[in-house]
Amino acid sequence: MHNTTHRSCRRQGLLSGTSLLIVLFFLSLGNIPVRAADYADGDIHKNDYKWYQFNLMQSLNNKLPFGARHDTYFEMEFGGRSGILSLYGYIDVFDIFDRRSDDRHNKDNFFMKFAPRLSLDGMTGKDLSFGPVKEVYISGLANVGDSGQFGGLFDTFIGLGVDVEVPWFGIMGSNIMARYSRENFKAPDEGKWSGYIWTNNWFKPFWFFENQTFIAYQGYLDYKFGYDKLRKVAGRTSHSLEWFHGFYWHSDQWSVGYGLKYYNSMANFKDDSPYTVTEKGQKVTKKQETTGFGHYFAIIYKF
């Protein structure tokens, strides 16, 4: 009982720390000069770009629900901008080498994230910048997963986003969006509006070499909250946090890196909550491990 109470207090403390971090993040933006995205000249394509790459990923000690801790997977990642539309996304294919030792073996096959944003500055032709905010967007997000015996995943989000000038980091993307759950593995929030997500991402080269390569600190922070319908289910929570810290070496064609990821109640599953699986014809009760640190290693080929 003492250990359980200690872990619960520790998790509450970490979440309180996250809330404090959010407040400090916005307070720190007060006196930053703005480089606005000016589309008054009518040229909405002057900031266009695109990129895509293939990633071979290895996760260790992951904190996904139901024991999915170690996995070798293939990822196609892409992004860019064309006119008023900017886009980021990826498709993950799990257990890419079909190994029995992989925690995803003969289970879920893929996960897809698709995150478009429409520039309100570009749509209106007006400079909507203010304070540290460089550009304002209508933001969207779709998370799609396998459909199996327990249903599938198809969560969609819509809201507002900004590009923000942050000390040292430069430009960070930030979005706050409301959630509509089209499919959620037959959970009671399917077909309903329930919950919100606050997303942030950054890419900061900070160490440069004479051969034009560099090391970047890159990552994201996604905080889900207000999942009030889901928290009524045993073993579920109203909140979830993912915070990824990546350190990657980059050349024009290749990248190699390591990422440390902190999870809290991953996918809105309570840490230490029990669940039942069948192993060798016998029902076995296990506990979720959805809070803590996981590790990622990547080899990347750029196009």
Essential attributes:
14 strands; 303 residues; Outer membrane phospholipase (ompla), Chain C; 54% strand; two-stranded antiparallel sheet; disordered N terminus; mainly beta; globular
Provide the fold topology:
Elements: H1 2-27, E1 49-60, E2 71-82, E3 85-93, E4 110-119, H2 120-124, E5 133-148, E6 151-166, E7 170-184, E8 192-208, E9 214-225, E10 240-250, E11 254-264, E12 274-279, E13 282-287, E14 292-302
Antiparallel strand pairs: 1-2, 1-14, 2-3, 3-4, 4-5, 5-6, 6-7, 7-8, 8-9, 9-10, 10-11, 11-14, 12-13
Detailed description of the structure:
This protein is mainly beta and 303 residues long. It has a single domain (2-302), classed as Nucleoside-specific channel-forming protein, Tsx-like (Outer membrane phospholipase (ompla), Chain C, Beta Barrel). The chain is built from two helices and 14 strands, in the order αββββαββββββββββ. It has helices at residues 2-27, 120-124, and strands at residues 49-60, 71-82, 85-93, 110-119, 133-148, 151-166, 170-184, 192-208, 214-225, 240-250, 254-264, 274-279, 282-287, 292-302. It has a twelve-stranded antiparallel beta barrel with strand order 1-2-3-4-5-6-7-8-9-10-11-14. Strands 12-13 form a two-stranded antiparallel sheet. Strand 7 and strand 8 (192-208) form a beta hairpin. The chain is globular. The protein starts with a helix and ends with a strand. 25% of the residues are buried.
